[in-house]
C-alpha cells in the first residue's frame, strides 16, 4: 500500500513538472512573438516613408536671355512634392518655342516670369490688335551694336531707286524717314558658346502696321537700304521729315556756302 502511494506522488510530481515546463514554454513563445512584433513595428517606424515626387523641367545648360527654347534645352527632374517650387512650370508644352526674358542657369527651374509674356503664353499674345511683327536682321551699324533693348522705339529710314513712269522725269534714288515709332519686341541672339558667351543679336522683332511691313518688304526686295534710328522714349509723335531725292540732295548741298580755303593756299 505504501509503495502504491509512493508511485502516485511520483506521478503527480511528474505531471506537475510537465505542466510547469509546458507553461514555461508557452510563456517563452509568447514573449518571443511579442518581441518579434515589437521589432517589426520599430523597423516600420524607423524606415522612411515613401516620398511623393513631381517631375519639373530644368535647364540642361546655361541659357541666355533672348534664346528660343527647344526640347534640347531642358530635361525633367524629380522634386519632392512638398519641396517643389510653387512657381515652377511643370508642363513642357509651355516651354517649347518660347523666348527667355532672363538668364536661366544650368539645373534651374523655369518660371513664367522667365518667359516673354509672363505666363508662358506664345509671342502672338503680346502683339497689339491691328499690328504685325516682322524679323529685321541687324545689318546696319546701330542695330548690330548691342545698344538696343526690348521696348526701344526706332524709326526706319528707307532708301531705294524709284523708276519714273514713261514721260515723267527720272527721280533716281530716294530716301525717306518713312516708318516711325516702331517698337522692338525682341532681340534674337544665337546660342552662347565657350568662344562667344555673349553673342550680339542677329535680328530684331519689330511690331508695326501691316501696311508699313509690306512697304518694308518691297524696299528689301528692290535691294534698297534700310537703316534704324533710335528715338527718345518721350517722342511719340511722327517727325515731319520729307523724303529726299538725288536732285533735292544736290540742291541742298548747293545751298551751303563753300568753306573758306585753308592750308597753304596763297
How are the SSEs placed, and which strands pair?
Elements: H1 2-46, E1 53-59, E2 74-80, E3 132-137, E4 153-162, E5 172-188, E6 203-208, H2 210-221, E7 225-230, E8 244-245, H3 246-254
Antiparallel strand pairs: 1-2, 3-6, 4-5, 4-7, 5-6, 5-8
Please explain how this structure is put together.
The protein is rod-shaped. With 266 residues, the chain is an alpha+beta fold. Strands 3, 4, 5, 6, 7 and 8 form a 6-stranded antiparallel beta sheet that branches. A two-stranded antiparallel sheet has the order 1-2. The chain has helices spanning 2-46, 210-221, 246-254; strands at 53-59, 74-80, 132-137, 153-162, 172-188, 203-208, 225-230, 244-245. It folds into 2 domains: 53-114, Type Iii Antifreeze Protein Isoform Hplc 12 (Alpha-Beta Complex), CATH 3.90.1210.10; 127-254.
Class derived from helix and strand content: alpha+beta
Stretches where pLDDT is under 50 for at least 5 consecutive residues are 261-266
Report how far apart the termini are: 173 Å
Question: What's the mean pLDDT score?
Answer: 77
Total domain modules: 2
Number of strands: 8
Number of helices: 3
Basic shape: rod-shaped
Strand content: 15-25%
* Largest sheet features: 6 strands, antiparallel
> What's the alpha carbon Rg, rounded to whole Å?
42 Å
Q: List the secondary-structure elements in sequence, H or E.
A: HEEEEEEHEEH
- Helical content band: 10-25%
